[in-house]
Predict the structure.
Amino acid sequence: MQLAELCKENMVFLDFAAENKDDALNRMVKAVEGAGGVDDINGLRQALIEREKLGTTGVGGGVAIPHARSATIKDLSIAFFRSKAGIQFNAIDNKPVNLVFLLLAPLSAGGPYLKLLAKISRLLRNDDFRSSLQDAGSAADVIKTLKEHD
């Protein structure tokens, strides 16, 4: 499954701002709700919080990949958030996060969910990929970057 198929332009947020991880998760849930990606925002918020309790999804290098599977999620989807100022996300390297991929999946999508999580993680290790996302001027540029690197 291609990332660009699952990350639509209405799920790309290039001027995202949040003070910390909790604030970021709350704002991400609201943004996804506004884009029509979830039935129950409280259920999604709780699923993301429970996942973060297992360990931070701030993987270092200015990157976070919060993710959840939940009955409240309609379809497998990805949202992208970019924060110029950075977010204190309790990342493993204790540095602010600038690039966030939010992966959402219904409970039934276990295999595809794990494959997408691995793919996103692998792509974010690529300096050119991260740089292209940092420099993207529009949601269309982000989708183009996803297509080029996937």
